[in-house]
Amino acid sequence: MRLAGKVAVVTGAGQGMGRAIAQRFAQEGATVVAIDVNLEAAQQTLAGTNGLALQVNIADSAAVNAAFDQTMAKLGHVDVLVNNAGVGSVDAFADIPDDTWARVIGVNLTGAFFCARAAVRAMTQTGTRGTVINISSTAAVSGDGPAHYCASKAALMGLTRSMAKELAKAGIRVNTLVPGPTNTPMMQGIPKEWADAIIAGVPMGRMAEPEDIARAALFLASDDAGFVTGQNLAVNGGSAFL
Ligand SMILES: NC(=O)c1ccc[n+]([C@@H]2O[C@H](COP(=O)([O-])OP(=O)(O)OC[C@H]3O[C@@H](n4cnc5c(N)ncnc54)[C@H](O)[C@@H]3O)[C@@H](O)[C@H]2O)c1
What is the pTM assigned to this prediction? Predict the structure, then answer.
C-alpha cells in the first residue's frame, strides 16, 4: 500500500495507460480522481473503488479549476497528479491545419499546464508535499511522429524541469514519464504493418503494456522516488536512450 491515504488525480483515466495507472494507484491505497472526457469510461475504471470520476476536457481551464475545487471540497487534499491525457493526429507536416495544431497543443501541453497549475495551487493551500508526473513520449526525442505531437511532448519536458526547480523548496516533486510504444487503444488503431515495424525497433521485442507504465508511475508517485525530481524516466524496452 505505497499510496495509502493519498489523493491521486489521473487525467485520461478512461482507458489505456490512464486506466492502468488509476487502477494500480487504487490498489496501492490511493483515493483516485479519474478525469476523462468520457465519464462512463472513467466510472468503469474506478468500479469497486472509492474514487471520484469527473467528466472534464482538460483543455478547458475553467472546467479543470472546477474539477480541482470539487476534489478539494470532497477529499480535502491533492497529493499526486498524473498528466496522462493526450491526443494524436496523423498529418504530414505541411498539411497540419491550424485547428489540429491548436487541438494537439491545447490538450497535450496547455491542458497539462492547466491541471498542474490547479494541482500546485491545491497542494500549496494545504502545504502538501505532493508530486506531478507528466506523461511525454519517446517521440519527443526521436522525432518519430507528427510535428504537433512531438512538439507538445518535448515541451512537457521543459514544463517538468521549470516546475521541478521552482517547486522543490515546497517539497513538490515533478517528473516526466516517457513511454515508448504502448499497447493501448491509441496504438491499437494503427495499421498492423506500422505496429510490426514499431515492434521491430524495440530491442526487448514487444510494445510496453499499460501495466509497465503504471508500475513506473507508481514509483515516481511514491516515497521510493522521494529524492527524484525534474527527471525523465523512460519505459521503452531499450528502443531509445534518454
Ligand atoms: N500508446 C502509446 O504508444 C504512447 C506512447 C508514448 C506516449 N503516449 C502518451 O501516453 C498518454 C496515454 O496514452 P494512451 O495510449 O493510453 O491513450 P488513449 O488514446 O488510449 O487514451 C487517452 C485517454 O485520454 C482521454 N482524453 C483525451 N483527450 C482528453 C481531454 N481533452 N480531456 C480529458 N481526457 C481526454 C481519452 O478519452 C482517453 O480515455 C498520452 O498522453 C499519449 O500521448 C502513448
Answer: 0.98
Q: pLDDT of 168-210, one tens digit each?
A: 999 999 999 999 999 999 888 888 898 899 999 999 999 999 9
Three-class SS of residue 62?
A: helix
In the chain the domains, ranked by start, together with CATH numbers, are 7-235 (3.40.50.720)
Say which residues have a Cβ less than 8 Å from residue 98's Cβ, sequence separation at least 6: none
- The C-alpha atoms of residue 28 and residue 182 are separated, in whole angstroms, by 23
Distance 87 CA to ligand 1 centre (A): 6
pLDDT in tens, 61-98: 999 999 999 999 999 999 999 999 999 998 999 999 99
- Distance (Å, rounded) from C-alpha 87 to C-alpha 191? 18
Cβ atoms of 60 and 110 closer than 8 Å: no
The protein residue with its alpha carbon nearest to ligand 1, atom 7, reads 137
> Pocket residues for ligand 1 (CB within 6 Å)?
11-12, 14-18, 35-38, 41, 56-59, 84-87, 107, 111, 135, 137, 179, 181-182, 184-187
Residue 201: CB atoms within 10 A of its CB come to 15
Grid cell digits, residue 191: 495499421
Instruction: Give one DSSP letter per residue of 163-211, joined into a string.
Output: HHHHHGGGT-EEEEEEE-SB-SHHHHTS-HHHHHHHHHT-TTSSPBPHH
